[in-house]
Amino acid sequence: MKIEKISPHLSVTGQIQIEDIAEIHYAGFKSIICNRPDGETPGQPRAATLEEIAGAHGLAMRYIPIGGSITAERQASDFAQAMAELPRPVLAFCRTGNRSRTVAELAQKQPRTDNSRHHHDILILGGGSAGIATAASMLRRRKRADIAIVEPSDAHYYQPGWTMIGGGVFQPRDTVRPMAAVMPKGVSWIQNAVSTFDPDNNLVTLNDGTHLSYNILVLALGNRLAWDQIDGLEDTLGKNGVTSNYRFDLAPYTWELVKNTRKGRALFTQPPMPIKCAGAPQKAMYLSCSEWKKQGCLNDMEVEFHNAGGVLFGVADYVPALMETVENYGIDLNFGSTLVAVDGTARTAIFETAEGQVSRPFDMLHVCPPQQSNATLANSVLADSSGYADVNDATLQHTRYSNIFAIGDCINCSNAKTAAAARKQAPVVAVNVLAALDGQGPKAAYDGYGSCPLTVEHGKIVLAEFCYGGRVAPTLPTWLIQGKRPSRLAWKLKADALPPIYWHGMLKGREWLVAPTPLQ
């Protein structure tokens, strides 16, 4: 395969084969443009096949065929748009590379204005689960919708899987994909981050000074893990027995500690609400205890749960099963106990309690960090007093700006901040955004649904599902999964079904069991 460099951002080559894609990836390319029409010669790989393989290697791909009546002149504007939108550098190919070279030269002569590059009908800030799912749901309804996603990261993570990494069930590679591989086809990916908002003029400014205008804005900015709020914590994370399943790079260390700790004191912490997945601190603890029980050393472990709140779980219906689990493992519950400092070298944790500060030595410390709103959002007029996006809890439309919506962990609604909540919210936001784009009012409503598969032991889960007000809201029939009791089927759902549902359902706009409910 002979590659010719046209510019710092573009190279061309002749026909590529399936086996070439790995080499293209390792050569540093981020995207591929196919300029050869399907079916020109027998045995030629189809563009769709190449795109699937490219996606598996984290490469974006665009099909812009040139041949016969489809001239390079006709395709020049599409090629120019692809070069503006795709991650760079880009490799374009045809049979010999000549058509790709020609269309690239023509594309450079295409008229281009700042407005064409910097205005979008729908602008989504954030390429996490909420942002990607919302864009995909909108494109399912309106294929040619003009959507841009602002997201600085190269990688996209399946965060619910990190608990399973820390429990020795998943491998880290199971929970990460290149951002280019999950970005919906047809969306413009702007690899940057927002720095300021100007909602009165429908403008945002990015970190590089670029101004983006929009008709509709969707906030999907998540929340911030405030490790810095605990004195000494950042200096000792990943060593001295201090870990957290709330970070991709630390979850494997959790499992390493669990495997290698056979006696001593293990502390698990939970900060004040709101946090991502309120059950995650407990999940880490229960899976650890399950492994220690399996290895026959649980009786040699002192396990303490330090919870800043006053209850084990916010939905009372699930507490009895969790209390049974706590008692079976002999866990010492400490409510109203907030981690405020860590001395990793001395292996000591300091907690603030009603009686004052308490110091606890440890052999293992699993920390759930305090969490705050995205700082840029919190300092804007779009936030409420707590720093979260101020939206209607049913329509997810901003309370003061009718052309702004928000979704996921950055909203101020009382629902649980979980991936399951974002999955339920995405179709609602998609419907309401498209209605607003058409000059209409909201059409769909979110009921506050959230789900927390509480891994009480290896092989069993208490599947907590609930809506606003703590109302239990099972998705599947209770005769199939009794959510208030530990279930092996719920474990199979968590371990085997939910990851593919996430990657191939939620992020593709497939709304299995989460069709939007009409607004009453």
Task: Give an overview in words.
The chain is an alpha/beta fold. The protein has three domains: 3-112, Protein-Tyrosine Phosphatase, Chain A; 117-222 and 374-445, FAD/NAD(P)-binding domain (3-Layer(bba) Sandwich); 227-370, FAD/NAD(P)-binding domain (3-Layer(bba) Sandwich). 28% of the residues lie in helices and 25% in strands. The protein contains 14 helices and 28 strands. The strands form eight sheets. Strands 6, 7, 10, 11, 12, 13 and 24 form a seven-stranded mixed β-sheet that branches. The protein has a five-stranded mixed β-sheet with strand order 1-2-5-3-4, sandwiched between helices. Strand 6, helix 6 (129-141) and strand 7 form a beta-alpha-beta unit. Helix 3 (72-85) crosses helix 4 (98-107) and helix 6 (129-141) packs across helix 13. It is globular. Residues 112-117 have low confidence and may be disordered.
Q: Which SSEs are present, and which pair or pack?
A:
Blueprint: E1 3-7, E2 10-13, H1 21-26, E3 31-34, H2 47-56, E4 60-63, H3 72-85, E5 90-93, H4 98-107, H5 114-118, E6 119-125, H6 129-141, E7 147-150, E8 155-157, H7 162-166, E9 176-178, H8 179-182, E10 188-190, E11 194-198, E12 203-206, E13 211-219, E14 223-225, E15 242-243, H9 251-260, E16 264-270, H10 280-294, E17 301-307, H11 319-329, E18 332-335, E19 338-343, E20 348-353, E21 356-361, E22 364-366, E23 371-373, H12 375-378, E24 404-406, H13 419-437, E25 444-445, E26 450-457, E27 460-466, H14 488-504, E28 517-518
Parallel strand pairs: 2-5, 3-4, 3-5, 6-7, 6-13, 7-10, 13-24, 15-22, 16-17, 16-22, 17-18
Antiparallel strand pairs: 1-2, 8-9, 11-12, 12-13, 14-23, 19-20, 20-21, 25-28, 26-27
Helix pairs in contact: 3-4, 6-13
